[in-house]
Amino acid sequence: AASRKNNEKLPSMSTSLREYPRKNVLNIKSCRQSASKKQKRCDVEFSVTSPVFAYSKRFNIDNKTLWASACVMPGFDPKGEIPKICQDCCTFLNDENSVLLALFDGHGPEGDKVAKRCGEVTEKFFLTRKSRFEDDPMKLLNEITKRCDDDVQGSTKLDAYYSGATEVLVYYHNESLYCASLGDSRAILATTEPPETSPAPTALWGEDKKVLEEVKIRRNSEVNPKIKAIQLTKDQKPEDPEEHARIIKSGGRVQRTRDENGNQIGPYRV
User: Fold this and answer.
1) Of the candidates 78, 126, 130, 265, which lies 20 to 30 Å from 48 by C-alpha distance?
2) Are the beta carbons of 137 and 171 closer than 8 angstroms?
């Protein structure tokens, strides 16, 4: 099983994988507008954060040597006005014939604790009960998901009323991949031999999809033509029409924050 004592494992990861330019300048629009209605821009100098978790391991499965690496990069406010707590948790576990990759992205006041707890529950379940699901990999993923939810909801140490976590599980077993997800975290397969049929439906984003496409063109983004990115899970974003309808039917609402000028800013929130 993967050790959580990442300090002992960092030397095994190539130094080049953990070093990158830390200082940068971000040109952003000011939220305040002048009388001339022209938006002001300003440069914000910042230094990106160091990983809070970095781990790499080599192991053998089905007579094949595989590498697995995990890294968590905490977010931050470039202006330094809002303190950020990293709410992400990821891990990978393996035995003689399988590998489980798990990621949890917390949200809300207790999001970091929820994500950490889900990681702990997943690790314990895999190590102690995985053998019961050798013939039904998808049931294993469903049971892990249910066990995480039951544990968080029933915990007396966590206040999960306004907190939770997304989930992505990718399970490699007997030379096949099985995936499960909740929320808008995504699993991606990088491959030189893409399948004829997409494993997961692409999320039908709203107006943000057009913005992202424009950014891609503006940045002149280039990709390696030999390596294809295959989406393995569907993003359950609130702006997706199907997800939006489910939320409204369940009695929820979807909205974006507005700035002092009434402009919608930030992601959609439930």
Assistant:
1) 265
2) yes
Separation between Cα atoms, residue 82 and residue 77, nearest integer Å: 6
Does residue 100 contact residue 126 with C-beta atoms inside 8 Å?
Answer: yes
Q: What would the pLDDT profile of 133-164 be if each residue is shown by its tens digit?
A: 999 999 999 999 999 999 999 998 888 888 99
Q: Please report the sign of the dihedral spanned by the C-alpha atoms of residue 171, residue 177, residue 180, residue 185.
A: positive
Three-state DSSP state, 182: strand
99/117 Cα distance (integer angstroms):
20
Q: What is the DSSP letter of 35?
A: T
DSSP state of 38: P
Token code pair at residue 88: 């992400």
**Amino acid at residue number 164:** G
Query: How far is it, in rounded angstroms, from Cα 119 to Cα 68?
Result: 17
For 52, the token pair is 């809070």
